[in-house]
Design a protein that fits this description.
By secondary structure, this protein is mainly beta. The protein has one domain: Sandwich (Immunoglobulin-like), CATH 2.60.40. It contains no helices and eight strands. The chain has strands at residues 2-4, 9-14, 24-30, 43-44, 46-48, 51-56, 67-75, 84-93. A hairpin with an 8-residue loop joins strand 7 and strand 8 (84-93). The two termini are 14 Å apart.
Length: 95
């Protein structure tokens, strides 16, 4: 997915399994860093049907500078497990 750096939009992340309804978080890590996110990098997200949604952009709580990001999903509330998955790439660029 590509978003201009000036745009505020919902990013939809397709999900599978039966985690719908459990608390979910999303993190964005620069692809060039080749690492998993830390707990502090996750942002609260929500469910829209079977998709995970998060608002990203200058008018949101998730503001990303220009770059290519690995998108990570973490499902919480399924104690004792806390699955983490890399969900894809998002590019934030100049309009």
């Amino acid at each position: 997915m590509y978003l201009p750096v000036t745009s505020t939009e919902y990013i939809l992340i397709p999900a599978s399994g039966d985690a719908t309804g459990l608390p979910v978080k999303v993190a964005f890590v620069l692809n060039s860093e080749e690492r998993e996110p830390t707990d502090l990098e996750y942002h609260d997200a929500a469910w829209e049907g079977t998709d995970i949604v998060i608002l990203v952009g200058p008018d949101s709580s998730v503001v990303l500078p220009v770059g290519e990001y690995d998108v990570w999903v973490q499902v919480t509330g399924a104690s004792p497990v806390k699955p983490v998955r890399r969900a894809g790439l998002t590019t934030i660029g100049t309009p």
